[in-house]
Amino acid sequence: MKRTIRYPLYCACLLFSVITSGAESAESAESAEKATPDRPNILFIAIDDLRAELGVYGNKVIQTPNLDKLAASGTAFNNHFVQVPTCGASRHSLLTGMRPSSQGHLKNGVTEKLTSNKPEAELPESFIHHLKRNGYYTVGIGKISHSPDGLLYKSKQKPSNKRELPYSWDELLFDSGKWQTGKNAFFAYANGENRQSLKKQVKPYEAGKVADDGYPDGLTTKLAVAKLRELKGKSTPFFLGVGYFKPHLPFNAPEKYWNLYKAEDIQISANPELPQHINKSSLHDSAEFNQYALGEEKASLKRGVSDAYARKLTHAYYASVSYIDQQVGVLVDEIHQLGLAQNTIIIVWGDHGWHLGDQRVWGKHTIFENALNSAFIIKVPGIAGSKEVNQSIIETVDIYPTLLALTNIEAASPLDGDSFVELITHPKVKQENVAYSYFRKGISLRTNRYRLTKYFREQQPTI
To answer: Disulfide engineering: 456 pairs with which of 207, 375, 441, 446, CB 3.0-4.6 Å?
Structure first.
């Protein structure tokens, strides 16, 4: 599989990228068919703000044994890049298999605006909808599209019955626990309050003296385990989407995950200063992070936070990742205990990366490597795990065609991505791929060796 590239056309107010989908080779299609003679189940785990920083990627401090084990039994990609470094727009590209084609596609509300309010059409609204039309029983739990519980309502309202993806789910489930709504649960603190109810008078982290289900992601795991036990008895294949909130801000996790680390072992960013010869418009002043009014320090491009505070925040992020690692481990263990492992594809996808003080930024929302590179692991039954992390470049838009190839389902319309089944079945194959990413007035192209970024703005430099 070699990516077919057509160079994008640009203008200052509208971004276009058109890349034709490369056909999967007959050899890789045959390998996929042999690996999954029947249509496999799919467990798709979406993790918010999970940058490519796990043990399997070479971080010797972070504790992610379950994700590392899953990677060892499957394939971990070190160079997975999202299309847009913000939650809703990144997930829209995932769901549609399409790159953004307008400024509206770069906003968190893109799915609600373009998908939620439409009647069911001939073309599917998402790859999940397409799987459903082709015999899959689809269940969503947590944040798969942009809404924390998949429903549309304002933060101070009661949840509605209106779905963000109206036609994709046979079942849409969520346990909001003591937080009462998905939007409250998304910014949850252990005492049942949330960022909104406390009017942002909170720290951007918390070590809660609670069990795993003392935060919403633990409740999501319990719900997913119960649903897996039900789905085992179905005669049709299932797609189960499980969306976890952490390590999204606030970096809140049960205290036991904080205790996995010693503060002196935490390594802060190796690139904490502004790059040379850039305009500050290429970065930002960490507004999302600075909303947490009780944080000990504020972040800005004028001056980075202290090393001590950077270490505390990184500790908090790592604790949140370890908390989610445990949740993933519970789900994967349940798949094995139920005898489903031999016919279930397992995917772990980070919706984008995050600057942990890199370039003085705490957050996403840039088209730098830190915000675009996220974790991606796939385990396909019948295909042996790779001993090494796969260095080939893949994009989020490639996930849709890859799942279709693995399930032997034809696409309903042309997609921007390419199947990477061949990279799973033949991990030693070297490929010169390209990833495109977009945000605000910039577009970034990533090759195996370089990143080239172009901004359509008055501020110089633009490249």
So the answer is: 441
Residue-by-residue DSSP string for 277-295 = T--GGGS---HHHHT-TT-
State pLDDT tens for residues 223-275: 999 999 999 999 999 999 999 999 999 999 999 999 999 999 999 999 999 99
Q: Is 426 exposed, middle or buried (0-12, 13-18, 19+ CB in 10 A)?
A: middle
Angstrom CA distances, 39 to 378, 393, 399, 414, stand at 16, 27, 17, 22
Q: Which residues contact 66 (CB under 8 A, 6 or more apart)?
A: 325, 326, 328, 329, 332
Question: Buried b / exposed e across 72-100, counting CB within 10 Å, b at 16+?
Answer: ebbbbbbbbbbbbbbbbbbbbbbbbbbbb
Distance CA 91, CA 83 (A): 9
Across the strands, what pairs with 356?
Answer: 362
Count Cβ atoms within 10 A of the Cβ of residue 123 and give its class: 0-12 exposed, 13-18 middle, 19 or more buried: exposed
3-state secondary structure of 247: coil
CA separation for the pair 190, 176 (Å, rounded): 13
Q: How far is CA 248 from CA 10, 95, 196, 288, 289, in A?
A: 32, 20, 15, 11, 10
- DSSP characters for 20-56? PPPPPPHHHHHHHHHH-SSPPEEEEEEETT-BS-SGG
Residue 278 pLDDT > 60, yes or no? yes
> What's at 190, amino acid-wise?
A
Terminal Cα distance for the chain, rounded: 30
CA gap 456, 440 in Å, rounded: 9
User: pTM of the predicted model, to two decimals?
Assistant: 0.91
- Which tokens belong to 275? 């790059």
Q: Name 15's bridge partners.
A: 10
Q: What is the pLDDT confidence band of residue 131, given thresholds at 50, 70 and 90?
A: very high
With CA atoms as reference, report the closest residue to 340 among 424, 225, 172, 175. 225
